[in-house]
Amino acid sequence: MNTVEQQAYDQGVWTNWMDEVTRKGTGQKYDLSVSGQNKYVNYYISGDYTLQKGIMKGNDYEKYDIMSKLESKINDYVTVGLKGNFLSAKSWGQSPSLAHAMWYSPFSFVKVGDNAKNKELIEGDYGDWYSSAPDGNVASPFVGSGANDSYLYTSREGHNYNLNGVFFTEITQPWIDGLSYRFTLSGQRNTSRSDVFNSPKLWVDTTSPSQMDNPSQYLTKVEGSSSMSQYGSWTLNHLLSYNVDFLRNHHFDAMVGYEREAANSEGLGTSYSKFSTPVTLKWYIQSYSNQDTKGISRTRTRTQTVSYLARANYNYRQTYYLTFNFRRDGYSAFADGHKWGNFYGASAAWVLSNENFLKDNVSWLDFLKLRVSYGQNGSRSVSAYATNSTLSSWYTWLDDKSTLGFMPNNLPNRTLTWATVTKFNVGLDFSVLKNRLDGSIDVYTGKTTDMLVSRSVPYPSGYNTASDNVGKVTNKGVEITLHSVNLDGNGSNSLRWESDLTFDSNTNKIVSLFGKNYAGEESDDVANATAYGFDSYYALMVGHPIGVAYDLKKLGIFQRKEEINNYKNADGNPIQPDAQPGDIKFEDTNKDGKIDANDRAYRGTLDPLFTVNFGNTFTWKNFSLYFSFRWMQGDDSHFLGYDPYAFSYHSGIQLKKYHAWMKEGDGNKYPRSNYSNSLNYQFWNNRSFLKLKDLSFSYNFDQKLVSKIGLQGLRLYFSGTDLFTITNWSGLDPEDGGTLVAGSASGRFVRNGTYRTFTFGATITF
Question: Are strands 640-642 and 601-604 parallel, antiparallel or unpaired?
Fold first, then answer.
C-alpha cells in the first residue's frame, strides 16, 4: 500500500467504485396513437417520448418520435400509400470510466474531505472537490484518463435527427386479370451533431490548494471537438406480378423486378486546443483557441446497388409446390469488371397431410409438409472504397512547425468481388393432436466461396491487413422450433399455458484459404490475430471454424518444485526450468523441448455447441405471465472466451472470486498472485450459461369497468430483462464475452456488463 491507501485502511474506508460510478437507471416512455378508416382511406398517426437516465452516471438520453401512415384507394385499380417518420434524439453528459472503477483500489477517498487527515484542505473549503487521485496513484474514475472521457470535467452533447419515408403505388391492370404493378420509393436522411469540450480542472492536482484556486493556469491544455455528419439513401423498386388459377387445381404466379439503391454519407469535423483566456461558452468559443492547434476534416462516401430479380411459383391442389428464383446484383464498391454477381435458387414442397393415405389412416395428424430448397445469396460486406488505395491525413513536425501530411490507408484490390453463399435445406412443418403441438425442423448444409475477409499481409508491405476474396467455408446445422398448448384453457375462466422452444446448432469449417503453399499444403492465417487486434488471439485455420482461439495450452499449475524438475523433454531437460511453484504449466505443442510462441495452436472455437430459447405464457382471467430462458452451451473446445485479467491479482479483485495459488494443493485454476504472464497466455474458459432473459406480468382491466370512465381498454404491466444468470464464466456477461479490464488506466478489454432492467407501464385505449 502507498501512503494514501494506508490512510484509507487505517480510517476504515472501503470504497466500492462500481457503486460510485453507477446509479439506479430510470426511464419514462409515453406513446399516443390515433387510427381510423373508411371505404377509401386508412390512416394511422402515432408519437412517443422517451426520457432515460442510464445506469452509468452521466448517461442521459431523450427522444421524440412521430410517425404517420396514409393509404388511399383511388379507384378499383389504383391504391397509393405514404408513410413518414421523424425522430429527434439527444444525449448529454460523460460517463465515468468503467475501466477505472473495475480495477481501482477500494482503499481510496472519493472526495478530498473524505480523508480525515486533510484538515487543512477541508478547513480551506476544498473538501467538496473530488480527489484527482483517490488512491494516491492513478486518476479517479470520475476524472478519467483522457481529455474527452472525464465525468466531472468533460462536457458532451450529441444530437441525432432522422427523417424517412416510403411512397408506393399499386396498379391492378383491369384489362389482364391477375396482372399488377407496384412502385415503391423510400428514402431517409440522418443528421447528427456531436460536441465535446473539457475544463481546465481536469489537470488540477487536488493536493495543491494553489491549483484548485486557479484552474485557469491549465487553459493551454484545454481542448475540444465538434463534428457534423449526414447520411442519405434512397431505394426504388419496380415489381410486375402475374398470378392465375387454371384447370381448377393449378396455380401459377410470377414476378419480375428492378431495384436501385444509393447511399451518400458526409462528415465535417473540427478540433481545437490551447486557450489564452478563460472560456465559459464551451465549444461555441472554439474560434478563440490557438490558431496552430486547429484542425479540420472532411469525408464523403458514396455507394450504389442495382438489382434485377425474377421468381416463379407453381402449385397443384395446394399440395405440390415448385419455386424458381434468380437475381443479378451489381455493387459499386467492387472492382471494375467484378461488380456483378448472379445468384440462383429453387425449392419444392409436398403437403403430405393432404394425401388420402394419411388423412384416412392417421387421425392425430393435422398438418405435415416436407420442404427442400437450394439457394444462393451474395455478400457485399466491404467498405465503399476497399478496392482503392485511400489516403488519410496526419500531422508531423517539420522545421519546428506542425505540418499536415498524407499517407496511404490500405492496399488496393483490383479483383475484389461478391462472396457467394450457397445453402441446401431440408425441412418439415407439422401440427398434431388438434394443433396442441406444432413446429418445424430444418436441417441444412451450405458453403461460402470467395469469402470477403480482412487477411494478413507481410509487414514489409507497410500494412497489417488487406480486403480479399479467399477460400471456401462450409457450414451445417439444425434448427428446431416447437409450440405447444400444455393446458388448453380459454385463458378466461380456465388456465391456458403455452410454450415455445427453439433449438439451434451450427458448425462451420474453413475448407481452403489462399491455396497451397510451396510445400503443396494449405496455408493458415495464424497471423490474422493482428487483424482483430494484437490481444485477440484469433486465427483463420484450414479445417477449423472461422476465427478460432489460437494460443498456448494450459495443463495446470505447478504445485511444487519436483513437478517442474520432472516436466522434461526427450533429452531429459526441464521444459520450463525457470518456473516456480504456482506458475502455469504449458504443453510443449511442437515438441521442441521448450515453451515459446511457437507452441501456440488451435485451442477451440468461439461458437456454442447449441442455443436453446424456452418461453412460457400463462393466461387466466385478466392476468398474463410470460417468461423465457436462454441456454447457450459449450465445453473445453466450444464457446470459449478469453479473459486474461480475471486470472491475475490486481486491485480490482472485488469484482470476482479470485483465489491466488498460495501453496501445494490450492488448485489448477489460478496462478500465484505475482505470476508474470510473459508469454501473454489469454486464459481461455467456457462461456456456457443459463439466463432468465425476459419476464413480464400484466393485468387487463375488465372492459365493462373501464368503459365507465370513458376508456375502451386499460392494461397495466411489469417486465424485467436479464434477471439472473447461471454461469462459470470468469468475466462479465457470458452472452457477449465481456471481460475484465487490463488496468485502471487501460482501454484494453473494456466492456460493459449486462444491464438488468425493470419496466412498469400502462396501455390505455380510448
Answer: unpaired
Within 8 A by CB and 6+ apart from 226, the residues are 193, 194, 195, 196, 269, 270, 283, 286
- Residue identified by cell 458453403 is 447
- E strands present in 531-605: 538-539, 548-551, 554-557, 584-586, 601-604
H helices then E strands: how many in the chain?
A: 8, 30
Alpha-carbon distance of 496 to 617, in angstroms, equals 8
Helix H or strand E encompassing 380: none
Buried b (16+ CB within 10 A) or exposed e, 143-160: bbbebebbbbbbbbbbeb
Contact 94, 156 (CB under 8 A): yes
The residues that bridge with 179 in the sheet, in sequence order, are: 242
Question: Residue 614: beta bridge partners?
Answer: 501, 629
Residue type, 115: N
Region 472-491 average pLDDT: 95
Cell 491549465 maps to which residue? 218
Query: Partners of 477 in the beta sheet?
Result: 444, 506
Angstrom distance (rounded) from CA 180 to CA 452: 38
Is the pLDDT at 140 greater than 80? The verdict is: yes
For the record, the C-alpha cell of 183 comes out as 412502385
- Which DSSP string corresponds to 618-674? EEETTEEEEEEEEEEE-BTTBSEEE-GGGSS--TTGGGS----B-STTS-SSS-BTT
Question: Model-level pTM?
Answer: 0.85
Percent of the chain with pLDDT over 70: 94
- CB count within 10 Å of CB 116 equals 12
Average pLDDT, the chain: 89
Q: What is the pLDDT of residue 653?
A: 59
Residues near 598 by Cβ (< 8 Å), separated by ≥ 6? 589, 590, 592
Q: Amino acid identity of 106?
A: P
648 contacts: CB under 8 Å, gap ≥ 6: 671, 675, 677
Predicted pLDDT at 532: 45
Residue 602 and residue 580 in contact, taking contact as beta carbons nearer than 8 Å: no
Angle at 266 between CA 264 and CA 270, to 5 degrees: 175
Residues above pLDDT 90, as percent of the chain = 61
Q: DSSP letter at 102?
A: H
What span, in angstroms and rounded, lies between the C-alpha atoms of 764 and 744? 48
Alpha-carbon separation of residue 402 from 218, 224, 387 (angstroms): 21, 18, 32
763 pLDDT higher than 70: yes
